[in-house]
Every structure is written in C-alpha cells, then in structure tokens.
Design a protein that fits this description.
The protein has about 110 residues and is of the alpha+beta class. Helices cover about 20% and strands about 40% of the residues.
C-alpha cells in the first residue's frame, strides 16, 4: 500500500482545519475534513509563510459526521517553494507594485 500526500496548504488555518503544535513544532494534533487519510500518509499545511509536510502517526474519525478526523502528526519536513510557484508569486507582486505606482501618479 502506497502512502498518500494530502495537501491542506491552500486551506485556511482556523477555518478549514485546526492545528495545535506540540513539542515546539515537531508535531501536533490536526482536526480537519477529509476521507481516506490513513496512518503513514502525509499532510501538507502552511504555518505563516512556511509550508510543512507532516507524517500521520495516528488518525481517528468522528462517528458523525464521519469525514471529520483528529490526527496526530509528527516529523515535519519544511517544503521548498517550487520555482513555478515562486515565478507566479513574483509576477503577482510585480503587478501590484505597478498598480500601486500608477495609483500614486493619479493622486
């Protein structure tokens, strides 16, 4: 059986899921919505500007609704921002700078 990776980095912490850090960030408890997440899988979350991948050590699903779970996560790995994401981010920042500069010219 192959371990799966579940990406929560685009979701909103506190709204879409809850993450309580343990041991100074080396693990934590996560409550969220998902199906087919198993022990040994990986979950990607974002803390501020940093993206981390955690291993699911233990997971328990609620009886109702059954797609809500609480998981014990461990062994965080800091994810490197892919160059494609970096270039998209830089393009958006450049566009915002141009709009800001244009707005200053109108004042």
């Amino acid at each position: 059986m192959k371990n799966k990776t579940h990406n929560y980095s685009k979701l909103v912490l506190g709204s879409d899921y809850v993450f309580d850090q343990l041991n100074e960030g080396t693990g934590g408890y996560m409550t969220g919505i998902g199906k087919a997440i198993k022990s040994g899988d990986y979950i990607i979350v974002q803390h501020g500007c940093q993206v981390y991948q955690y291993e699911v050590k233990k997971i328990d699903y609620y009886l109702y609704p059954p797609e809500i779970y609480i998981a014990l996560l461990d062994n965080p790995i800091k994810e490197k921002m892919g160059s494609q994401i970096f270039h998209k981010l830089m393009a958006k920042i450049s566009a915002l700078i141009i709009l800001f500069a244009q707005r200053l010219d109108y004042m």
